[in-house]
Amino acid sequence: MNRAGLVNVGTFFIKLALRLHLPIKKLLRNTIYEQFCGGESIRECETTIQHLASSGIGTILDYSIEGEDDEAVFEATTVELLRTIDRAASSNDIPFTVFKVSGLASNDLLEKVQRKESLSEDEQKAYDRVVERVERLCSQAHLRSVRIFFDAEESWIQDVIDTLAYTMMARYNGRRAIVFNTYQFYRHETLEAYKNAFLQAREEHYILGGKLVRGAYMEKERIRARENNYRSPIHTSKAATDRDFNAAIDFSIEHLDSLEICLGTHNEESCLYCANKMTKLGLKHNDPRVWFAQLLGMSDNISYNLAKQEFHVAKYVPYGPIDTVMPYLFRRAQENKSIAGQSSREFLLVKREMKRRKLGTV
């Protein structure tokens, strides 16, 4: 995972093999899929859900279907997402649910709406169905008292997603956050947008729900900006991203009377920064308004240590048929390679801990 060349070559050949219908699904299931996914269905995820719960870690079921362009698939995805909401309502082991608007709509349609281009009659009907699907999910989440994340996506469709998210927040959040929007702080305008969203929520008398992340589309964003000759929305340095992310933590922890957050991060320093901020302000570790989240298969050293200290922690557990989940898995591979040394560092931490246990040392 740390070797960019191997990731690129492996991704190319996996895509080719799937396109040629070569029998590689068993190999994928036993390697990258097993590392990052819970199973092909909610039922197959139950073992993972219970395993995480035994260590005080929640599960966020993530039906990872994206990039489709078929109305039947969009409807089937909506039905499956409703099942995740119902499963979450049945226990305390699933504190959040999540969906991507691009799993319910054509990317081309979302781009056209964001550009404010006129839609044909068929396109308008298609977009009306998108809004109706989003409404069904948020309405069901509100009815079952289940929190739901709008996942963040590429900048060229994010404005549409934001508009839908704020509409649903105003409708369903009230005195507690049911609907959460996701804020990507590797974009240079996000910190201001986050604060503006807070002001809007306070003016309209609802609690803002915010999932704070650094971001996952950096390479795509920069390439598209170059190709289309516009300023990249991405910060020019990691230090700037870290600065904005931690500034958002400060702002959030100081305004918990009017917002709730989930920190979706694999950055140890930011997790420690938030934990120390909570302690400084006299907040309990298990304050229900503050959560931490990491991806299944990544940063277990963060997740399990936070849970041991009684902070609220959850793992994203993607699931779905292997071939349809591959876009998600390719993104995880790219993310691992772009985080310098993360995979090797985690592997070394596991080896060190195994050695410590074998020797019986403290």
Automatic annotation (TrEMBL):
Q: Which domain of life is it from?
A: Bacteria
Keyword terms of this UniProt record: Oxidoreductase
Q: Where is the Proline dehydrogenase domain?
A: 46-344
The terms under GO molecular function for this entry are: FAD binding; proline dehydrogenase activity
Tell me which SUPFAM superfamilies the record gives.
FAD-linked oxidoreductase
| GO BP annotation list | L-proline catabolic process to L-glutamate
Name of protein: Proline dehydrogenase
